[in-house]
User: Fold these one by one.
Assistant:
Number 1:
Amino acid sequence: MLELQPDLAFTTGQAERLLEASFGGPVVCSRLERLSGGLVNTVVLLEFDRAPYRVVVKLHRGAGHAFEAEARALEYLRTQTTCPVPRVYRTATTADVIPYAFLLLEYVPGRCLDGLRLEPAVRADIETQLADVLGELHHHRGHHWGRIADGGSSDSWVDTFTVRLREARAHPRVRERLEPRALEVVDRAIEVAPIVLSGSAVPTLVHGDVWDGNIIVRRDRGRWRLAALLDPDLQFADPEYELAYLEVFDARREAFISAYRRHHESRPGYEQRRLVYWLHTALVHVALFGDEFFRDFAVSTATAINRSAAP
């Protein structure tokens, strides 16, 4: 897991060097605005005096391999699917032009859905649009499981995801932030997770990190429209992994589920399998942020897994 760096210092001079190296010729940068929603990296909107006039740059000090993976994922989505994503202008995984690794992206006008107050009918419309986007995305199938950036080379989704669970559990901050008794419950759940996940679907292309903070919407001709999905963790996975992740952050997605089921039927046992996906999300959040909600959620979810797997 990457170190959290949401507040890196970034100057106008650094921005102009980056823009000149990326677009050629002298550039005058007139605006730097830190954007909300950047939890892992520093995210900045830049305005300057030549086309494309606005861009977004993501910054991280140290190893920047995640930017290379994100750039590949965005280009795959843009060229191989109808999923709306920003264009990649340039990425650098080392501190060459500026003292950070960076990912330079197209600016997509709009608002982050997270924290945006909308009428229920408007929100339901956006959920329906999201369901149509993910419904199309989930029609893309592969021959192996795993992340696009890693080549998607695994023959077993159960093995792939169990490894991720164990890696999340092994993070030092998980051991620090969960009580010994809670860790015992989590460990038992991880042991039975392969049984719960047995009978997975075919390898399906999923965005991998869809939540309100990664959804951009904009008002267009009187209607809020889904403008872009950000920060993909693109992979061939069980599509239920994507659906479960959405429900972690908001279980009230009736409009989404209704629209999504027009594209894909449900499979029996989803309510049990989603618990395993929820446990992974909980452990990752415990490691990165340590918030009380996910500490409690990890324990309650692990307890439910153990109960569901009991003879």
Number 2:
Amino acid sequence: MTALVTRLRGLQSWQVTLGLALAALGFLVAAQLRSEGPRVRYTSQERSPLIETVLSLQRNQDALKARILELNAQIRDLQGSGEGNAVLVRDLNDQLENARIAAGLVPLEGPGVVLQLDDSTLPVPSGATGSDYQITAQDLRTVVDALWQ
């Protein structure tokens, strides 16, 4: 036993450190190799279901592309038949615009109408009242009512 102790005391410190580092490295390499096994097995087991899933999704995509082509054809047919309806829609829009103008819902621009109301400049005859020759609120209401009609 003393020979073993003497031999261990004769080892350099770097040799002990190197030995421990190599032992730790060996442990890590063994653990890594052991963990590789299940992952390789897992990917090889899952390959065929993944291929089936991809093929199924490809079939679905092809069916959806065909449906898109059908719908595009229907849209073109409807647009072609809608050209006759475009004239009807345009006429209805013109009628609607005329109704809005008649109802006063659309602001209009143009020369317009100028209405000027002034009091009379004639002398008031005897026996008449001066208010008969002046513009009153009743006169304004009558004019506005006539314009609305």
